Input
Amino acid sequence: MEFFSILFPRGSIDSSTEAVGEPDFFIDLNLNPIFSYLETSRPQYAFSSIFRVPLQQDDDILYRQTIFQDIEETNVYQSIARFSSSMMTVRDYFAMRDKLFYSSQKQRWFLDGVHLYCKGLKTLETDLDQVHLNSSGMRAVKQYLSSYLSSETFMALQAISTHLLEELTNVTYAISIKGSRITVQHLQEELDYGALIEGIFSKFAKSTGSPASSITPDWPEMNHVEVQVLELVTKLYPELFMQMADFYEQNQQFWDATLLRFEHEVQFYMSYLEYIKGLKMMGLSFCYPQISVAKVLECEEGFDLALAHQLQLDKIKVVTNDFTLHPDERILIVTGPNQGGKTTFARSIGQILYLASLGMPVSGKYAILPLVDKWFTHFPRAEDMSDNEGKLKDELVRMRNILSRATPQSLIIMNESFSSTTLQDALWINRQVLQRISQINVLCVCVTFIDELTTLGPNVVSMAGVVDTNAPLVRTFQLQRGPASGRSYAVTIARNYRLTYEDLKERIRE
Amino acid sequence: MNVHLMFKDRDFDPEAKLPDHTSVLIQDLAMESLFAAMADGDTFLRQVAEHALLSPLMDVGEILYRQMVLKDALNHPSLIREIYQMALDTIQKEKQYYFGFRYPDAILHRSLEVLRLFLDRLKLLMEMVQAHESTFESEGFIAMIAFLKKELDEDFFEKSEVIWKDLNRNQEFLFSATLGKGNKGVDYLLRQKINQPKGLGGFLFSRKKVAYSFQIHERDESGARALSEMKNKGIEKVASTLANSVQHMLHFFIQLRNELAFFVGAIRLHDQLRAIESPVVFPVPLDAATRQLDATSLYDVCLSLSQGCMVVGNDVSLQGKALVVITGANQGGKTTFLRSVGLSHLMMQSGLFVSATSFCMNVASGIYTHFTRQEDTTMKSGKLDEEMRRMSGIIDSLRVNSLLLCNESFASTNEREGSEIAKQIMQALVEKGVQVIFVTHFYEFASDLYQSNHHNILFLRALRLDDGKRTYRIVKGRPLPTSYGEDIFREVFG
Output
């Protein structure tokens, strides 16, 4: 079998990556809440290590992107979800088998589990037959699955379990209770009393609203009366129960390891697609970034994914931003009003680049991104409680470490760096740092309140928070190149509410 | 079993969610007095009135169907009230039967008691209906009576009585079961015993067969509990089937009450308006695309009800116009006129009569209001913000042939800006086939439209006599540069 992993085209990852700890920049870039949400959404599968291994080659990224694109198709997504949920149920059944005492019960839970396992795989095969798969990864899965399902072992497993189950399902027996005596026998042609009643009163029934009106508590264990009844039923059908016991003894090892691994790994894709689904429904765009060799960085309508997810829960509209850096533009200086979304904007750039390197679709209508080899963030640290001097020193030490490791393929995101000192000092230090960054030619996003930094050189691009001149207090969370243009207040408001002539022509339904 | 008096083909649901715009409509059209007249203090009647009026019918056939039923109801006021009371009382009584532990034997017992009540009330209903059968003329009533006669025939009552007696007797249990998850017995089903002396048919043969049995020891308490649990499982389906059946029967009474409630309210409204000599007429509904309104003495029914007397009406004729712009004197009856049009739409499209002496109008696919909110005292920008937010909310609901009533919209900003916003919105709405009636004192807005000489726009004005007196009449007329605030100032300050 050629297929090993749908995470890596060339098989398994180096086992040493298991030991990778969580990088510092996860918190600064707000990646933490995303990944922990994905993990906790599927607590049965541990896959956090995958998030810590950014891919360094564009064909690895493409391998995952194409798999994402396949799974994004509703039909594929649903068939995998169905498959996973079947497998989870199978495991539940086996847990039940381990828990219960009577052998006839154990054997039956096992039989049901095996049957569901076969059915789940068969269904997956049928489902995948009905869709067109483009990715080499999913095609390999499908191929592997087909050959496994046509193996003799599997076919026998399926045939016998199906047969036994049918027989057991067909068993119907009669119980009569008179005083404290219980009699078990074959059923004759007695009529269902409930059906008689239904027949008479059905004229009152509506298709809607028939509340289930009765609950009898139910649990998998049996009481001793039920056990005695079952023993008598066994006597009514001795051969069938014998066959079931044999099946149990002979089929203890039946799982296919490769398919188990697929089920596990595919949760990486499923959990992320589920995470972004709600945001897509709110009209936010996601795209598969194109990897640029020419160091172009371009994204339309990007946003901070973690923040958007939070805002979606609170039903707050998400602001998106465009950004572009041409190959010769290496430093992006972000300025603007307080609380105007600068940090969020810088984060979203970092997020987009990182998520792209995991092969994931990223926020935005489209994106062209470079491959990044190392990720650095230089954010103020809450735990820095020492005096300003110590704080500045610590910041500088951190920056020196970053600069000593950064390469032209790296990314540095600075957030209000060196702001613990005077403006004059901060300006000077930042100039020095940015010059070194220029020399290394590393990609840098720098959030600052110092406007002078925007004119440092030809490789520097300035983006500023948009201020609505008529309502300067209203935060727009928009950033763009160049100064914001003022507009008449009323028309601006009309635009905000999408009530201009053009907006309305679009909005009103035919 | 269908009642189908409100709709020919479906049930009326007074619990259904009303459109988001509902509370705004009630406020803007001042509908409280209308609901009060229909409900007469009864919260349920009020709820039904509100639901019927605020879920307007869009189809001319549906409107006429309900109009016919209402005409029948107006001809049989006491019988309608009597059946309504009977349904109401039955629903009340059903609630008094205690729902104890939700165990099958308790459920079965309760269901049998409720079944007794319902069977008696259904017999009563049949007597009431059959006595007046021949005097109904509407499709709705005729169909309902025919349906009742067919379904609640002798055979039904006979069979029901047998079931009731059969299950009331305590008996030996026979049920079937199958093997469920983990081979545990499931699908316990009560079976009709074959050798039952009396019953609903059944098989009288029996074959010899293998049978195994065991006895539970008399001191085995947990065994006795297990046994009773098993019995309960056995009667579970019968108990739940019967519980469902009486639940369905209850729904029939509830449906009867729900649908009659509207007509009971309409009868009340009719009586009240007659008492204050305010005329009503059954409107002629026209297809949505016709864009027509022809009315004689159209008045604001809510104003009339709250003042307790007949109020001034207007003769109106709007033919084929997509936009109506009303200008003129403050307190000159513009708002009242706007309301009377909105109310007639809601009344006509709920099957009611309308407040005029003759009336003919197209149906609107949705009625919306955008009234200025005088009570807002927030700062200017916030107020315009609020107006725009409301307008934006309405836009998402509008469709072709919807009706939008604007009352001094965008008055919270200056005239130039307000006019600009209004022009853009009106142009788009008209092009999208939305009908708009716009009361405004923005001269710039109104005169721009007038000069554009748009064939699709009708201009109306609150009529002021030469001596400055207002008449509360709305007539055709071009916009004039000033509103009449001066008049009111004089009236107040002398």
